[in-house]
Amino acid sequence: MPAKKKTEDVDKKPATSKKIAAKKAAPVKKPATKTTKSTMATATTEKKAPKKTTRKPSTRAKLSAQKPEMPRERRFENKLNSFGGKKKTEFTTEEKLKALYQLQLIQSEIDKIRIVRGELPIEVNDLEDEVAGLETRIQNLSDEAEEVNTLINQKKQLIKDAKDGVKKYEEQQMQVKNNREFESLNKEIEYLQLETQLAEKRIKEYTADYAAKSEVLETSKAALEERIKDLNTKKEELEDIIAETKKDEEQLLKFSDDAAGLIEERLLAAYNRIRTNARNGLAVVTVQRDACGGCFNKIPPQRQIDIKQHKKVIVCEHCGRILVDHEIEI
Known about the structure:
By secondary structure, this protein is mostly helical. Among the domains are: 88-115 and 264-329, Helix Hairpins, CATH 1.10.287; 120-251, Orthogonal Bundle (Helix Hairpins), CATH 1.10.287.1490. Helix content is 71%, strand content 4%. The chain is built from nine helices and four strands. The protein has helices at residues 2-25, 37-47, 59-66, 72-81, 93-116, 120-173, 179-260, 265-277, 301-309, and strands at residues 284-288, 291-292, 314-315, 322-324. A four-stranded mixed β-sheet has the order 2-1-4-3. Helix 5 crosses helix 7 and helix 6 (120-173) runs antiparallel to helix 7. The longest helix is centred in the middle third of the chain and has 82 residues, at 179-260. Residues 1-53 and 63-67 have low confidence and may be disordered.
């Protein structure tokens, strides 16, 4: 029996070794991975290339790209000549809007030229007003000082006359025959002496007043000389700037008068009123990004359609400016 057990154990060992070798040789199966929605979405985005959106250029941009830019004066002249020899009462609404817009463009160019001058015109006006005020003040002080000096001379003359009177009455006292005449002459002498004292007091007051006025007068004269120097310097600077832009400004002012002559009096008066009330001097503005070019408030789509039709003059509901579209400039 023990011999049989040993042989069975020997037979079992090679069988177990064969199973181990078979397991090592067998290929290992990997677990299947589940595809989720996120991985599918990333795969689709990687496959699709991003599309580039190109914005179509406007007709104004196309025409400006095709035609070379014309000089400013020539452009305004051509625009004004395009109205022909028509009477302003015969203009259509579109032509009226074009004339208003051209007038606005011309006057905006004039404003740009005047902005170059900066605050110089205002400073010159302020200095001129200050110089005029100082001159008036100096004149008034001179008159007052002269009056005080006249009063001083009058008081001096009064003192002199009073002294002569006292001397005369004293001589008469030596020739009196009774006490009553002596007392009356004595009262006259006392009265003249009081007049002399009062005049001397007034002379002191007038002299102090005259000295104060003379001091203020000298200070005002020195200030006037400084202001006149500043005024001359500012005027020279302003004249230099005006000389540089004088030719362009005169030409633009001529164009402005020509453009104003094409517009009815009623429309021109309304335009001037809006331009005066507007801060930036814009009375006619274009529609920019669906908004008013003056106050930048949104314009309803239907109102934009009405503006593009050029059948009536439309104003902004918020700022009151006249609205036009870009096509009216072409």
